[in-house]
Structure formats: structure tokens, C-alpha cells
Design goal:
single chain, 138 residues, alpha/beta, Rossmann fold, seven-stranded mixed beta sheet, 25% helix, globular
């Protein structure tokens, strides 16, 4: 499934559609180059999940944890700074990935071998006109 995001105003509605279509899944791997909009889209998902106090990108903390009244525990990972999968084990990533909470992961290729088999891959691509395509693979 592919979503077209023409501008920033399209993001909240696209996030809501994404949730309706895919939130029966738990682990989402967001792939896209720097500046493609991964953090922006995940922030829109968190807002659509009723989370008001967003902490931004967990670039330095590696993970932000939220409690959604509608969806339960939600984890937002940014593993860009990890050197290897061993460092992911050190932060307890396996426990978070497999405890039933919802996980949104930026730079998932760094921990690809640790992800559950049923991970949903989301590819965000920036086009020449600054619009985005968001392609979801199950």
C-alpha cells in the first residue's frame, strides 16, 4: 500500500489512515534517508494515538516511551547512533520489541536481525517536488 503526502498539511490525515489500516500490527520499521520525514510522520502517528506530550526524536536517548490511553505502551526508537546490535541489547531493545507494545523504529537496518518476522516496513521517499511517498510492506 502506498500513501502520497503532498505537503505538511496532509500528514495528520495520512497518519490517521495509516493507524486505521495497520495498527493491528506492533512493530514498524521506518526506512528513509536523512530528512525524508520519518520523525515527522511518527510524531503525527503519536498525536493521532492521543499522545500529547511528544518528546521529539530520540536521537540521543535512543528510545522515547509513551503511554497511550487508546493503544497502551508505545516506543519510538531512533537507533542511528548505535554502532552494532550488541549496543541494542545493552539498552534492552529485545524486551521492548517483544513485550506487546507498539514500536516505531527509525534506522531499522542497524538492528534488522533483531526485528520480529512480522515487522511492517515503511519506506518514506522524498520526491523532487518535496512531496513524499510512504510505501508499506507487510
Amino acid at each position: 500500500m502506498t500513501f502520497q503526502i503532498q505537503n505538511l498539511e496532509d500528514i495528520p490525515a495520512t497518519a490517521q489512515l495509516f493507524l486505521e489500516e495497520f495498527l493491528h500490527n506492533k512493530v514498524f520499521a521506518f526506512d528513509g534517508e536523512m530528512g525524508a520525514g520519518k520523525t515527522t510522520f511518527i510524531s503525527a502517528l503519536l498525536s493521532a494515538m492521543g499522545i500529547q506530550e511528544l518528546e521529539g526524536s530520540p536521537t540521543y536517548s535512543l528510545v522515547n516511551t509513551y503511554d497511550s490511553a487508546m493503544y497502551g505502551k508505545v516506543y519510538h526508537f531512533d537507533v542511528f547512533r548505535l554502532k552494532d546490535e550488541r549496543e541494542a541489547f545493552d539498552i534492552g531493545i529485545e524486551e521492548m520489541l517483544y513485550n506487546g507494545g507498539i514500536c516505531f523504529i527509525e534506522w531499522p537496518e542497524k538492528i534488522a536481525n533483531l526485528l520480529p518476522d512480522n515487522t511492517i516496513w515503511v519506506y518514506i521517499r522524498k520526491l523532487d517536488d518535496n512531496s513524499r511517498t510512504l510505501t508499506v510492506e507487510q
